[in-house]
C-alpha cells in the first residue's frame, strides 16, 4: 500500500468533545511569514497545498503573523481546497508598521473587528477555530469568549479554541462556551503542561494542538541564522544552555538514526506517543520538511523507547526569555 493510499485510512483525532475530526498532524504557517528568517511565498503555497493533498486537514495561522501576510498566503493556498481543511486562527496581538509588538487586545469590539479582517484576508465565509493568541490582562476571559460565541451564533466561526492559558482561564472560558482545543507549546524540551494543564483538559473533554514540537529547530540541530532570527535571543540557544543542549541533541540524533528516523521524526513520534489524543502542529516551510514530518506518522515509539529517550538528558533553559515568560498565563500555576 503506497503512502498516498494509506492516508485515506489514516486515523483522525477529534478536537475536544464538540470539535471536528482532524488528521493527526497539523500544519503551522507562522514560519512562512518571516519569523525565522527568509521565506519564499511560492514554496510556502506549494507546501500548504501538498499538505492538504497528503491528507492534512488542520491549517494554523495568526492574523498578526507578518501583519496579515500569513492569512493572505493561506487564503491563496486554499483556493479550490477550502472544503478539505479546518482553518485555525489566532487573534489579538497588536503590531506596529515596523513589526513591533504592542500588547494584546481581546475586547469584544476588537474581537469582531479582527474576525472581519481575517475572513476577508483568508477569502473564507467562516473560520473553523478562532482563538485569542494570549490572555488580555485587561479583559475578563468570559467577555472575550462571549464575543466569539456571538460570532459562532452568527455563523462566522465554527469552534472556539484557546492559546497559552493556564488552568483557571481554561475552566472559566469553558463555562461560557465549549472549548475544542488549547494551543500550547509541548515537546521533548518543553514538558510543563503535563503537570497541571493536560489533566484539566482531559477532565473537561478539551483537546490540545501542540506547537514548538522541534523546540524551534533546537531538537533537529537547526541554529539561529543571524540577528533577524528571533531564536538568537532565546535562553535555549544562548550561553551555557546552548553547549549543554547541543550535547543532548547529539544524543537524540544518534538515537533517531539508530532507529531509522530523522531527528524531526523522532520529535514528532515522541509527542504522538506521549499524547496520542492531541495533535502536533509542525511549522514546515518547505515541501521537503513537510514530507519528513509526515514520515513520523508511520513510527510508533514503545514505552521502553520513550524511557530510553528520557534517559538521554534534559534540555536546559526556558522556552522564552524571562520577560515573555512573565506574561504567559499558561506559566501561572494553579493555587490549591
Short descriptors:
alpha/beta; TIM Barrel; eight-stranded parallel β-barrel; oxidoreductase; Aldo-Keto_reductase; 336 residues
Q: What report would you give on this structure?
A:
The protein has 336 residues and is α/β, with parallel strands linked by helices. It has one domain (3-330): TIM Barrel, CATH 3.20.20. Helix content is 38%, strand content 16%. The chain has helices at residues 3-8, 41-53, 69-78, 108-122, 141-154, 167-176, 197-204, 239-258, 263-274, 287-294, 303-310, 322-326; strands spanning 13-14, 21-22, 26-28, 58-62, 86-91, 93-95, 101-104, 127-132, 157-163, 179-185, 207-211, 279-282. Strands 3-4-5-8-9-10-11-12 form an eight-stranded parallel beta barrel, surrounded by six helices. Strands 1-2 form a two-stranded antiparallel sheet. It starts with a helix and ends in a 10-residue tail after the last helix. Mean pLDDT is 90; it is low at 1-8.
Count of DSSP helices? 12
Alpha-beta content class:
alpha/beta
Strand sequence of the main sheet, in spatial order? 3-4-5-8-9-10-11-12
* Main sheet makeup: 8 strands, parallel, barrel
H/E order of the elements? HEEEHEHEEEHEHEHEHEHHEHHH
Mean pLDDT: 90
Q: How many independent structural domains? A: 1
Overall spatial form: globular
- CATH H-tier superfamily: NADP-dependent oxidoreductase domain
**Could you name the CATH class?**
Alpha Beta
Number of distinct beta strands? 12
How helical, in percent, are the residues?
A: 25-40%
**CATH architecture assignment name:** Alpha-Beta Barrel
- Tell me the Rg in angstroms: 19 Å
Strand content: 15-25%
**In whole angstroms, how far apart are the ends?**
52 Å
CATH-defined topology: TIM Barrel
Uncertain residue ranges = 1-8
Amino acid at each position: 500500500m503506497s503512502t498516498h493510499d494509506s492516508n485515506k485510512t489514516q486515523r483522525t483525532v477529534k478536537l475536544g468533545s464538540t470539535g471536528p475530526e482532524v488528521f493527526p498532524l497539523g500544519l503551522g504557517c507562522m514560519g512562512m511569514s518571516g519569523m525565522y528568517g527568509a521565506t519564499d511565498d511560492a514554496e510556502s503555497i506549494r507546501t500548504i497545498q501538498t499538505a492538504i493533498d497528503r491528507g492534512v486537514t488542520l491549517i494554523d495561522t495568526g492574523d498578526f503573523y507578518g501583519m496579515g501576510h500569513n492569512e493572505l498566503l493561506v487564503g491563496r493556498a486554499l483556493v479550490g481546497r477550502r472544503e478539505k481543511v479546518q482553518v485555525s486562527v489566532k487573534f489579538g496581538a497588536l503590531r506596529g508598521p515596523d513589526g513591533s509588538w504592542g500588547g494584546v487586545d481581546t475586547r469584544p469590539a476588537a474581537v469582531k473587528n479582527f474576525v472581519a479582517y481575517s475572513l476577508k484576508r483568508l477569502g473564507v465565509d467562516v473560520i473553523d477555530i478562532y482563538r485569542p493568541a494570549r490572555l488580555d490582562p485587561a479583559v475578563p476571559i468570559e467577555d472575550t469568549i462571549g464575543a466569539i460565541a456571538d460570532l459562532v451564533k452568527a455563523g462566522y466561526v465554527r469552534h472556539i479554541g484557546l492559546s497559552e492559558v493556564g488552568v483557571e482561564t481554561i475552566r472559566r472560558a469553558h463555562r461560557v462556551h465549549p472549548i475544542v482545543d488549547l494551543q500550547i507549546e509541548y515537546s521533548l524540551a518543553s514538558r510543563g503542561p503535563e503537570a497541571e494543564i493536560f489533566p484539566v483538559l482531559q477532565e473537561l473533554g478539551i483537546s490540545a494542538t501542540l506547537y514548538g514540537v522541534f523546540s524551534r529547530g533546537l531538537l533537529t540541530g537547526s541554529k539561529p541564522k543571524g540577528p533577524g532570527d528571533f531564536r538568537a535571543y532565546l535562553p535555549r540557544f544562548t550561553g551555557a544552555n546552548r553547549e549543554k543542549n547541543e550535547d543532548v541533541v547529539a544524543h537524540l540524533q544518534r538515537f533517531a538514526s539508530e532507529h531509522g528516523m530523522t531527528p524531526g521524526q523522532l520529535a514528532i513520534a515522541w509527542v504522538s506517543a506521549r499524547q496520542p489524543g492531541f495533535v502536533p502542529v509542525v511549522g514546515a516551510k518547505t515541501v521537503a520538511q513537510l514530507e519528513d514530518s509526515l514520515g513520523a506518522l508511520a513510527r510508533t515509539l514503545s514505552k521502553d523507547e520513550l524511557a530510553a529517550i528520557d534517559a538521554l538528558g534534559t534540555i536546559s533553559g526556558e522556552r522564552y526569555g524571562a520577560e515573555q515568560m512573565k506574561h504567559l498565563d499558561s506559566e501561572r500555576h494553579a493555587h490549591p
